[in-house]
Write a structure and sequence with these properties.
two-stranded antiparallel sheet, 367 residues, mainly alpha, 15 helices, globular
Length: 367
């Protein structure tokens, strides 16, 4: 457990350092007075705070629905109470701050400690949560680019063509995700690869857990599961977009169809950029890209969207979109520490570490 705690601490250190540099650069570029970042943050309508928190509660609710659904797919939902499942799920929000999200494997460790479900069976859930939410975002963004690209007014700011960048990220991500969903259903291809692995001396021991991992992935990513969860993922995306719409409104921008389209599209693109960066929780990356897109797309038509307002809006959106859930997860993990880290967790974590070094996982064939 110490190793994973250190990964989380290193993620906190990296994220903090990035934000210190970001704030220093923003402060030096914007200067003092009415056009400063501090002045813009002070001008925000903080009475919207409860509504911003509410949007993130909706995000947590939609994601918990996904989590519970997938637990049912792998046969784990009946083995854990809803309250224990919720504590585990929310506590694991803190894991996203590890570099490359490497500590998220602890979600499967905690789940096995509670339910006995094999690691190889539950790891695909962590993957599915990312892919399904991403699929919902990418599909809606693709439709927006095809049907309403003129309304979005994708522009150029400081040499970055955000129109071209958005199209590359959106359409390439859609192709990769849909291609992966199709490939995972081709069982003969998968078993040919698994058969080859089973004949390799160094990888032979990994053959059984990899087979379990594949079968679990194949089940989870069947169309009958993908379709309803993509609808739920759309709820996650819209709740996040609503948060950003309210943030922009807090700086005096009128809520309109155009503003809502801009906010929704920016949330999708910048979330993808942050996820692809592998920086802990997209620290600084999403804020910089959000600022750039606001200045490229919104500022030409909205006098209130100054560089200071764009930077301030990006910081507030970044906190509620990314960091509020981390703090909630940390609070829940500390509050329910005894309930979360029972006697089975240390033994289960030791089993996972042995599995990494080639020993078979207990119960893999039974699940």
């Amino acid at each position: 457990m110490k190793k994973y705690r250190n990964r989380l601490l290193s993620g906190v250190f990296i994220a903090t350092a990035i934000y210190i540099v970001y704030l220093f650069l923003a402060d030096s570029q914007l200067g003092d007075g009415d056009n400063s970042l501090r002045a813009a943050l002070g001008a925000f309508n903080w009475s919207l705070l409860p509504w911003l928190v509410f949007t993130q509660c909706l995000v947590i609710l939609f994601r918990f629905i996904e989590w519970q659904y997938y637990l049912g797919v792998i046969g784990a939902r009946s083995r854990i109470s809803v309250s224990d499942s919720f504590v585990l799920f929310v506590s694991c929000f803190v894991l996203v701050i590890s570099p490359g999200k490497a500590a998220e494997v602890l979600k499967s460790v905690l789940l096995k400690a509670k339910t006995g479900i094999a690691f190889a069976r539950s790891v695909p859930i962590v993957l599915a949560e990312r892919i399904i939410d991403g699929l919902a975002v990418i599909i809606l963004m693709s439709l927006a680019l095809v049907l309403a690209s003129d309304l979005l007014s994708l522009g150029v700011y400081e040499g970055v063509d955000y129109g071209a960048l958005s199209r590359v990220i959106t359409f390439s991500s859609l192709a990769v995700i849909l291609g992966g969903l199709v490939v995972v259903q081709i069982r003969p291809l998968a078993y040919a690869v698994l058969g080859f692995i089973s004949r390799l001396p160094l990888l032979r021991r990994a053959s059984a857990p990899l087979t379990t991992f594949y079968e679990s992935s194949r089940e989870i990513f069947q169309l009958r599961h993908v379709l309803p969860m993509t609808v739920v993922g759309t709820g996650v995306y819209f709740a996040s977009a609503l948060c950003f719409i309210l943030v922009l409104h807090g700086f005096g921008l009128e809520i309109s169809w155009t503003m809502a389209m801009h906010a929704t599209f920016i949330v999708g693109v910048t979330s993808a950029i942050g996820a692809l960066s592998f920086v802990p929780n997209g620290a600084g990356i999403t804020e910089i890209s959000t600022t750039g897109m606001l200045l490229a797309m919104v500022a030409p038509h909205e006098p209130l969207m100054t560089p200071a307002v764009a930077a301030a809006a990006s910081l507030i959106q970044g906190f509620f979109h990314k960091w509020l859930r981390v703090f909630i997860g940390l609070f829940v993990a500390v509050l329910f520490r005894r309930r979360l880290l029972d006697d089975n967790v240390s033994a289960t974590l030791n089993e996972y570490e042995r599995l990494r070094y080639g020993e078979p996982e207990a119960g893999t064939s039974a699940v």
